[in-house]
């Protein structure tokens, strides 16, 4: 079996957050900036946490040169709010097929199973720990590594290759995501992409974006067959 790095997206791919992440981010943005409307028009899917805040600051008419400390403060406030928002969201859950797929991959030899996510690393943990799957991911590329999705995916891929002790040309890298942004990030680093149509985008759109394979959800046997 060819050594393989798996980079899983979180929101819309592993979990259905039931709006908890959006509520925590909107509350944090309002707390720090005083603007409770700017994030409403922004579709978060596929965006990294700092990119969401930055986009909100543009909508709010704030000058770009002030972004860095405000983004840091909003994300800290978001992390303080996130656990309570999750606890108050009964719909917060894993997507179907995720637990079974992770179990099936866990014993695959020469596999590095990690995250490739627009969440900051602490936010990723806060979302995955209540669902009992945080420890399934030994490493990741996160928005706390870089705001740009292709760059953070590349960082995650490199960490996975290091864990496998292999050179880049020996390793297959597969991004598992739910948006065209995941597909494009995979393409940007020469990785494959398994796309799941479990959020805003249907399989045809994801296929059109260039996904190597697009499935309705991770219970599709084609997903595991492809990943193994
Ligand atoms: Mg996603």
Describe this structure as you would to a colleague.
This protein has 228 residues and is an alpha/beta fold. The chain has 2 domains: 4-17 and 92-227, Rossmann fold; 20-87. The chain is 45% helix and 14% strand. It contains 9 helices and 8 strands. It has helices at 20-33, 49-59, 67-87, 98-106, 121-128, 149-164, 180-188, 203-209, 221-227, and strands spanning 4-8, 15-16, 93-94, 111-116, 139-141, 172-177, 192-196, 213-215. The strands form 2 sheets. The protein has a 6-stranded parallel beta sheet with strand order 5-4-1-6-7-8, sandwiched between helices. Strand 7, helix 8 (203-209) and strand 8 form a beta-alpha-beta unit. Helix 3 packs parallel to helix 5 (121-128) and helix 6 (149-164) crosses helix 7. The longest helix is centred in the middle third of the chain and has 21 residues, at 67-87. The termini are close together. 45% of the residues are buried. The chain binds magnesium ion (MG).
List the helices and strands and how they pair.
Layout: E1 4-8, E2 15-16, H1 20-33, H2 49-59, H3 67-87, E3 93-94, H4 98-106, E4 111-116, H5 121-128, E5 139-141, H6 149-164, E6 172-177, H7 180-188, E7 192-196, H8 203-209, E8 213-215, H9 221-227
Parallel strand pairs: 1-4, 1-6, 4-5, 6-7, 7-8
Antiparallel strand pairs: 2-3
